Amino acid sequence: MAIHRWDAEHAAAADGGTPPGPLDGDVAAAGTEEFMIEFLPGLPAKDDTGEFGGTLHLHATDGQTEWWIDLGARGPAASGHVKADTAIRGTRSDLLLWLTNRSSPGSMEVFGRWELLDSWKQLRR
Fold first, then answer.
1. CA dist 118 to 51, 100, 122, Å?
2. CA distance linking residue 125 with residue 123, whole number of Å
3. How far apart are CA 53 and CA 28, in angstroms?
4. Which among 58, 50, 45 is positioned nearest to 100, based on CA atoms?
5. What is the DSSP letter of 22?
6. How far apart are CA 118 and CA 125, in angstroms?
7. In the prediction, which pLDDT does 62 show?
8. Is 25 exposed, middle or buried (0-12, 13-18, 19+ CB in 10 A)?
């Protein structure tokens, strides 16, 4: 529901309204967990996704929350602090909005292989 609220506020901002605020951190963390379990495993089933590989480490700066995604396995592989090919640090809201292609990584810190972010965008289109 929070993502749909954000989408509606984003659409209203395009018509001169106030830009959407961040998602509640706890809600965003729950949304990220849901995304990992419900949506991520089905992404490679799309015919035009191509072959991807590499690992992403998502680190929330506003909580003790971390996620690790293996693009080759098409799903979460671990939780906690694990070295990955690319690490992204941001708020729980920023991370979820990025995961769902609603924002760019510009507001977050990125370490490692930037090309994995392009792969993610291709996977999520």
1. 13, 14, 6
2. 6
3. 26
4. 58
5. P
6. 11
7. 95
8. middle
79 φ/ψ angles, rounded to the nearest 5 degrees: -125, 160
pLDDT score for 45: 57
| Alpha helices, DSSP H, located in 1-125 | 2-14, 25-34, 92-99, 115-124
The tokens describing 119, both together, are 């792969």
Record the tokens describing residue 67, joined without a space.
């996620």
Q: Which residues does 51 contact at the CB level (< 8 Å), separation at least 6?
A: none
Structure pTM? 0.85
For residue range 15-32, list pLDDT tens digits in order. Answer: 888 999 999 999 999 999
The tokens describing 20, both together, are 């959407």
Alpha carbons 113 and 90: distance in angstroms, whole number: 17
Edge-to-edge strand ranges of the sheet holding 66-70? 75-79, 66-70, 55-60, 86-90, 109-112
